[in-house]
Structures are given as structure tokens and as C-alpha cells.
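#dry-run=false #mode=assembly
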Amino acid sequence: EAAVTQSPRSKVAVTGGKVTLSCHQTNNHDYMYWYRQDTGHGLRLIHYSYVADSTEKGDIPDGYKASRPSQENFSLILELASLSQTAVYFCASSGLGVSAETLYFGSGTRLTVL
Amino acid sequence: GEKVEQHESTLSVREGDSAVINCTYTDTASSYFPWYKQEAGKSLHFVIDIRSNVDRKQSQRLTVLLDKKAKRFSLHITATQPEDSAIYFCAASNGYQNFYFGKGTSLTVIP
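#status=ok
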């Protein structure tokens, strides 16, 4: 079974502070994703990556940076956290190509910005 | 970009009855349509998918129907059980690893 591990599980941050969410996968997957879940909005893609040292913007990248230093690790960085970034964040990974598209999700990080 | 609409935000059925969740999409290039389930307080996991080269796929009590002309796909759950209670997300992809999700349907199966 594919494994995606997120840390921390929850975090409280102050407005204007820096927040880093971490994700580690042991699936040997090429693709990694960061999604944000808000009530009434479903899942929205923030950033994704298909190879180490390269990241791509998703649908809502403003206010977020991403980093993929290795195939296994993918971080989401909020340089200046804002109240509107309070949400649950999910990391996911997937393989490449047809029949490898299944997303494997981490357990999520609940971020509260005060 | 692609927009996926999930028509039922909540759905309640009696145990043993069937449940149907409907989604529509806008991008004719979308060719892959997975469904994910999120149980209370947990993460999402894959349940079933369908590709655009077929119009029906069944896995045990789950069936997905795809109507490419109407740009509509649906998840049918038969003989529902309490453990089917969860939020179900539909998604669409154009095959380039970008997935667009619906807002989710909260299904409650009443014993």
C-alpha cells in the first residue's frame, strides 16, 4: 500500500508568520500535489511537482510556495500566513501515465491561522 | 480550465436503498474520472474510476456511468450500508495528471 506521510497533523500559526508543511512519500511516485480543502469548496490544487527540484503552480498558488528537494519530499511554504489560509491541507502522490493516476493522499494537516 | 460540478451537496438514504451522486464537467478533453471517499475525520481514498473509452464500469456495489455527450458522470451505490456514509468526491482529468475535484457529496446511510 502506497504511503504518504504529512507533518504536522495540526498547527496553529500567527498572522504574518512563516509556516512549512511537509510531505514524504515512499511510493516511488513521480507526481506530488498539495491540495487545500475548505468547506463548500472541495479540494483545490495549490502546487504540484513531477520531478525533483521543479514545481508547478496549480489553481490557487497565490500566497504559497512549494519545494521538492527530492523525489520523496514535497513542502508547502506560507511565507506570510493569513487568516484566509486557515484550512485543511492534503498532500498526495501519483505515478506517471495511464493506470498510474490514482492519487494517494496523506492524512492531512489542519492549519489554523490566528 | 476544467470545472467539475457535483450536484448533490448532501444525500440521505435508508440502509439497503441505492444512492446516486451526479457530476458534470466542462472540458471535452477530460478523459479520466475517478471517485474518492472521505470518511469522517479521515483522508481521502480512491474508490472507483472510469475512462472515456467506456460508458460503464462496475466494482461490487459501485457503478460509474459516463455520458460523454452530456459531459456527465455518476456514481451509483447499491444496497447501501452504514459504512458507506462519507463524503464522496468526483474528479476529472485530461490525462496530464491535473485533477479537478467537485465540492463533495455528504452521504448519510440511515440504519
